[in-house]
Known about the structure:
This is PilZ domain-containing protein. It holds the Pfam family PilZNR. This protein is mostly beta strands. It has two domains: about 5-115, Pnp Oxidase, Chain A (Roll), CATH 2.30.110; about 120-235, Thrombin, subunit H, CATH 2.40.10.220. It has helices spanning about 5-15, 55-60, 215-235; strands at about 20-25, 30-40, 45-50, 70-75, 85-95, 100-105, 110-115, 120-130, 145-155, 160-165, 175-180, 185-200, 205-215. The strands form two sheets. A six-stranded antiparallel β-barrel has the order 1-2-3-6-5-4. A six-stranded antiparallel barrel has the order 8-9-10-13-12-11. A hairpin with a 4-residue loop joins strand 11 (about 175-180) and strand 12 (about 185-200).
Amino acid sequence: MPQSQAYEFSYLDNIACNTEVNIQILTPTQPIRLRTRLVGVDPHVSIILALGSDKHWQQASDFIAQDQGVIIRIVKTDEPDANVIAFKTCIQKLINSSGRWLLVDYPKEIQKVALRQHSRIPINVESSLRAAPSEASENSTEAKPLAHGNLSDISIKGGAFVCKTNDTIEKEGNYLLQVKIMPDMETLSMPVTVKNAIGIEHDKAQLQYGFIINSPQSEAEIFVQKVILNHLLQQSE
Length: 237
């Protein structure tokens, strides 16, 4: 096992009890999202979660069954780096004797990144640039995109957008970066300012547009968290 992956498993094994956990149940139609807390970790065997009882859990009861595929997301916002962990697994079993617990299989692979690190994180996520609201003649979220491309890296400070060379994208121009998160089909929008344009050595028809994010850090963190998780979960498919 690579040293970095061994560290990530060790990190998971030592996450404190009662840490908030987000569960996404993979269904044929629309994903179901639930919140719970960590009860404990049995290394290499299972992850023990509290079995919820609110209306969301009740509505999802038909899908909370053995071998059901789920995505587990844990964000440690109380740490300086705000580490994000995501992995795919399956429900192992439900326990209602000594407590209401949901056991899921211990993951075979973990995706982990530090959300607040200033270095950019390499990703590959489809995205688009639209006119900024102040410059759009109509609602910017509905306006025709100026360019379709991919985010090639991201941080809470900024990132890089790669697309075909586009004369409408200007240095110091303000735009709206949009990303569609799968499988939720949620569209995220974030105001950005393009700072530079760099040629792609292996593809002369494309440019990499460096940008900064124009929003409070708390909003930037949420946006970047969702984008990174989307990338990580696509990578693990």
